[in-house]
């Protein structure tokens, strides 16, 4: 019942992969690293998910219906934070496992040595984003994905009602103008750059955005980690367009909706168009206002990271 992808097998080695498939190192009970609900490797199809940092790697487990077996590169700081959390849980008797790291059945994951050639995921636009409805945390400066100039992106999570169904959504808004790479002008090219990448203008928030090829939203360990864009080179792993300094906690409703649809609606607007809205009804109003003003783009992205 355990799935070990070729990418995971290549990282952990044939011997370790065979031991997992034979049940020698399989955790039995685990908390899904995506939806955080219980699972069991002998009762349902289970994906192995290898989180790789610069020096550390953590093998976690997830329902195969949530995410496929894959290798996910994250920052060393995030990975070490997960290891410390699991160590604390083990010290307290193994309670409160989050399925992110560790080595017992309650936590459902194991720390393994990182491959010597493990890629390093450099944050494209790291900030400390707040959960929807919480006070905004001060964002940190970061390089925008399309060039060396500095930009700060704010991220808000909420649910958007479309045709009677609540959809998980992420709203991205920079705190200032985004210039085109190589340009020193004062113009804001944020929307134009995203449209060139495949985002489409939104004219009606009541319609679900079109899918975008190669992009995805990484929800791991039950938290939002990154928005990934297609790799620059064919065959390479996706790169982070936005990555949180610390994983972003999302509401149970948001996570449940995402696990059900396996898709996330990602909206983007220029600075000053949306703002930090304390309630989802106000967020919806801000999105509709931005769409009416022709300053909103969006895309539907799959939930998996690779």
Map the helices and strands.
Elements lengths: L1 E2 L2 H7 L1 H8 L7 E3 L6 E3 L5 E7 L3 E8 L6 E4 L2 H16 L17 E5 L28 E2 L6 E2 L1 E10 L2 E10 L15 H8 L2 E2 L14 E5 L2 E7 L9 E11 L2 H10 L1 E6 L11 H13 L4 E6 L4
Parallel strand pairs: 1-4, 4-6, 11-16
Antiparallel strand pairs: 2-3, 4-5, 5-7, 8-9, 10-11, 12-17, 13-14, 14-15, 16-17
Number of helices: 6
| Strand segment tally | 17
Number of domains: 2
Distance between the termini: 21 Å
Biggest beta sheet summary: 5 strands, mixed
Structural class: alpha+beta
Region (Disordered): 94-146
Biased composition (Low complexity): 103-125
Biased composition (Pro residues): 126-141
Structure description:
There is one protein chain. By secondary structure, the chain is an alpha+beta fold. The protein has two domains: 2-113, no CATH class; 142-302, no CATH class. It is built from six helices and 17 strands. The protein has helices at 6-12, 14-21, 76-91, 190-197, 252-261, 280-292; strands at 2-3, 29-31, 38-40, 46-52, 56-63, 70-73, 109-113, 142-143, 150-151, 153-162, 165-174, 200-201, 216-220, 223-229, 239-249, 263-268, 297-302. The strands form five sheets. Strands 1, 4, 5, 6 and 7 form a five-stranded mixed beta sheet that branches. It has a five-stranded mixed beta sheet with strand order 10-11-16-17-12, with helices on both faces. Strands 13-14-15 form a three-stranded antiparallel beta sheet, with no helix packed on it. Strand 4 (46-52) and strand 5 (56-63) form a beta hairpin. It is globular and about 60 Å long. Residues 93-149 have low confidence and may be disordered.
